[in-house]
Design brief:
The chain has 74 residues and is an all-beta fold. It has one domain: Nucleic acid-binding proteins (OB fold (Dihydrolipoamide Acetyltransferase, E2P)). The chain contains no helices and five strands. The chain has strands at 4-13, 19-23, 28-32, 43-51, 64-72. A five-stranded mixed beta barrel has the order 1-2-3-5-4. The chain is globular. It starts with a strand and ends with a strand.
C-alpha cells in the first residue's frame, strides 16, 4: 500500500458516537488511528497515510485514511 498526503479541514461527522474526518476540496476521508492532537474540529491539517480499502466502517462517509503522520497548518 502506498501513502498519500492530503490537506483539508478536520471535522467531527457521522451518527451516534461519530467519527473524525478530513474534508478536502475533492473528497472526505474517514480518519483511522488519528492522534488526539489531530482530532479538533475546524483545524486545518496535512495528513500522510494509507487509504484502507480492506476496512469497513459504520459511518461510511468516504475512504478510510489510516493516519501515519500529520502537520497542523496555519
Amino acid at each position: 500500500m502506498s501513502s498519500i498526503t492530503v490537506s483539508g479541514t478536520v471535522e467531527r461527522q457521522g451518527f451516534g458516537t461519530g467519527t473524525w474526518a478530513l474534508v478536502t476540496d475533492r473528497e472526505t476521508y474517514e480518519l483511522k488511528d488519528a492522534p488526539s492532537e489531530l482530532c479538533q474540529s475546524d483545524q486545518k491539517a496535512s495528513i500522510t497515510g494509507v487509504v484502507r480499502d480492506d476496512v469497513m466502517t459504520i459511518a461510511m462517509i468516504g475512504p478510510v485514511l489510516e493516519v501515519q503522520s500529520f502537520e497542523i497548518l496555519d
